[in-house]
Amino acid sequence: MSHLISTYARLPVEFVRGEGVYLFDNKGKKYLDALAGIAVCGIGHANSELSANLKVQADKLWHTSSLFAAPEQEKAAQTLCRISGMKRAFFANSGAEANEAAIKLTRLHAEKLAIENPQVISFHGGFHGRTFGAMAATANPKIRAHFFPHLRDFVHLPFNDFAAIEAHRFNPKIVAVIFECVQGEGGLHPAEKEFVQKLRKICDERNWLLICDEVQIGMARSGKWFGFQHYDISPDAITMAKALGNGLPVGALLVNEKTENYFQLGMHGSTFGGGNLVINTVNKVLEIYERDNLPERAEKIGNYLKNLLNEKLGGLPIVKDIRGLGLMLGIELNRPIENLVAKGLEKSVVINVTAGKVIRLLPPLIFKEEHCRELVDVLFQLLKNEQ
């Protein structure tokens, strides 16, 4: 009998070691990892620089809290603001916590505007986390089931449908919009450029905040540092996590000059957020990303992988669509395939299926062309006989 709470249907594979883009189980079997811990391990597994850096810091200091001078947090915040165009950062422990901070930011904006009972627009297909605020922003009924009553602060609208936004133009309660540039859990649906640019325009006109949830697509996965950079806009706030720590738990809220002074002393906090061990790793991660130009690499390898998928899989009857940005790609099937992830494991490849019938590919950003070919060969074997 397991003593773990049964919130996961765990697959019967025990990974015990990683090396670059590969994982190894407790029987010594080697797997190509096309999931990267759900877009977390952008630099791959057991990176020697990260490991050495972590060991040095572990021998020095683990945690003191944010009650004292934090030069490593300052350094990380400076880098993140430089690459994003934002002004200030707050460090948390996860993407959900970063989104909770963003939701609090919308309340502070409402306070500035003297709006009571404010509302925020979010979108069907979006995913923002499982805490109560982030869950309320998430329209998926499977995520929200069993946990009523929800916060009533969110208006859920169709994604990429600006007419639905226009219908709320003069809603006096709206104060912000939150969205993902590519919906990960919702089936790898990219936002349309015109839609995003119109969002920015209406937010400017109505004095709404535009918040980009970059938890999954941020940190170079799209082929740029942030997904919003594909759309020629700048948001008022950004939330991020996942690849920021390459496996250590960390999230961040970044804010621009409009919102940089909204949070005042005592308004928000986190015991572990930006702790010494984690934030030191964040700085090393950012150093490696910049030095090795991982945004450009993700764009180049992502284009190669997408073209290869279209060439090898595009003609299969079961494949409905292949889409995404950079190394965040989805293969939509015309129906679900039972035990597809387990079948992938049998063929030594780690994949994921989201939204029922979309193969989600989130490989490490250090993937090479030979890894792409290895992955696509296995996917072809898995799908070729499915009608």
Can you describe what's shown?
It is globular, with a radius of gyration of 21 Å. With 387 residues, it is of the alpha/beta class. A 7-stranded mixed beta sheet has the order 4-12-11-10-7-5-6, with helices on both faces. A 4-stranded mixed beta sheet has the order 1-2-3-15. A hairpin with a 2-residue loop joins strand 13 and strand 14. Helix 2 runs antiparallel to helix 9, helix 3 runs parallel beside helix 9 and helix 10 runs parallel beside helix 12. The longest helix is centred in the last third of the chain and has 20 residues. It has 2 domains: 242 residues, Type I PLP-dependent aspartate aminotransferase-like (Major domain) (Aspartate Aminotransferase, domain 2); 82 residues, Aspartate Aminotransferase, domain 1 (Alpha-Beta Complex), CATH 3.90.1150.
In the CATH scheme, the class of the largest domain would be: Alpha Beta
Helix content class = 25-40%
Named at the architecture level, the CATH assignment of the largest domain is: 3-Layer(aba) Sandwich
Sequence of strands across the biggest β-sheet: 4-12-11-10-7-5-6
Count of domain modules: 2
In DSSP terms (H or I, runs of 4 or more residues), the helix count works out at 12
Largest sheet: 7 strands, mixed
Strands, count? 17
